[in-house]
């Protein structure tokens, strides 16, 4: 690029002085051959340096420099490229960097509770919105606007993470619950508990987040037992003196209480058989 800038600067001075001679290379469309070679080199470098081969594909857009090393060390430009070594007799073991035909990518997907826990409790994550970092209070208010029940769900998530459990969301479609509790995580064990989050006040008189009928509760308990898990109702108790202004900050988590209730299904025949064995 420095050579290109010097050449362009020299051409500008020559045009001003009217001293443009025939020794200067002929230009096509305002771009000199040297600039073309420089631009071609700048386009080739990000892709990779390929070794020259006599039987190179005719549709290849990379030029081989005769003065270059016949077998240069390939530069791997990124994860979207592969180093291919020809093992055929005609190829002669030529190394070539090609773009991989398969698009392999993996994204880290965090729930709102997981993201806020990493920001608020561990301090190992920063969340940006429109290229601006969000503070803890701003992130809290943003998540509340996205989900009205975020305070209750995060209180439960924070409670179990503090106890050493690994809570995971997404069990609503499969098991009909809000959270799944793992001892060490999904790669190691199956979930031990299926958790349903409920909101209540000091007297346990509040509109439930998920109103259950006896039929729906019995069905959920039966599904949980069939997959070898236990059903847990986790109540988030809000004090009566908690104002809306206090809920607008994560400081309100100190005033919330968590109570766990295990729901089990009683089977008369199984209970009688166990008593006979005793």
From TrEMBL:
Residue intervals of the tRNA intron endonuclease catalytic domain: 150-236
Gene3D superfamilies: 3.40.1350.10
CDD domains in the record: tRNA-intron_lyase_C (cd22363)
Entry's Gene Ontology BP terms: mRNA processing; tRNA-type intron splice site recognition and cleavage
Main location: nucleus
Biased composition (Basic and acidic residues): 1-24, 40-52
SUPFAM superfamilies recorded: tRNA-intron endonuclease catalytic domain-like
Statement: the UniProt record of this protein carries the keyword Lyase: yes
Active site: 182, 190, 229
GO MF term list: nucleic acid binding; tRNA-intron lyase activity
Keyword Secreted belongs to the record: no
Keywords, ordered alphabetically: Lyase, mRNA processing, Nucleus, tRNA processing
Name of the top EC class for this enzyme: lyase
Record EC number: 4.6.1.16
PANTHER family attached to this UniProt entry: TRNA-SPLICING ENDONUCLEASE SUBUNIT SEN2
Family recorded in the similarity comment: Belongs to the tRNA-intron endonuclease family.
Protein's UniProt name: tRNA-splicing endonuclease subunit Sen2
């Amino acid at each position: 690029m420095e050579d290109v800038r010097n050449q362009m600067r020299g051409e500008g001075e020559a045009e001003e002085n009217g001293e443009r001679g025939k020794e200067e290379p002929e230009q096509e469309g305002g771009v000199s051959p040297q600039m073309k070679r420089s631009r071609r080199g700048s386009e080739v470098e990000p892709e990779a340096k390929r070794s020259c081969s006599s039987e190179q594909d005719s549709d290849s857009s990379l030029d081989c420099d005769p003065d270059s090393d016949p077998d240069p060390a390939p530069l791997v430009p990124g994860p979207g490229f592969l180093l291919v070594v020809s093992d055929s007799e005609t190829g002669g073991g030529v190394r070539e960097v090609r773009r991989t035909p398969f698009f392999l990518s993996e994204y880290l997907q965090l729930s709102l509770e997981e993201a806020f826990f990493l920001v608020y409790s561990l301090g190992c994550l920063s969340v940006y919105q429109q290229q601006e970092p969000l503070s803890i209070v701003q992130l809290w208010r943003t998540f509340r606007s996205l989900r009205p029940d975020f305070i209750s769900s995060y209180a439960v998530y924070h409670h179990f993470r503090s106890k050493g459990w690994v809570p995971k969301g997404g069990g609503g479609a499969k098991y009909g619950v809000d959270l799944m509790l793992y001892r060490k995580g999904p790669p190691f064990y199956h979930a031990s508990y299926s958790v349903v989050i409920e909101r209540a006040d000091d007297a346990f008189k509040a509109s439930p987040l998920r109103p259950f009928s006896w039929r729906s509760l019995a069905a959920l308990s039966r599904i949980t037992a069939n997959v070898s898990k236990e059903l847990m109702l986790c109540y988030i108790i809000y004090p009566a003196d908690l104002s809306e202004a206090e809920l607008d900050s994560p400081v309100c988590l100190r005033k919330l209480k968590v109570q766990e209730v295990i729901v089990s299904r009683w089977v008369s025949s199984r209970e009688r058989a166990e008593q006979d064995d005793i």
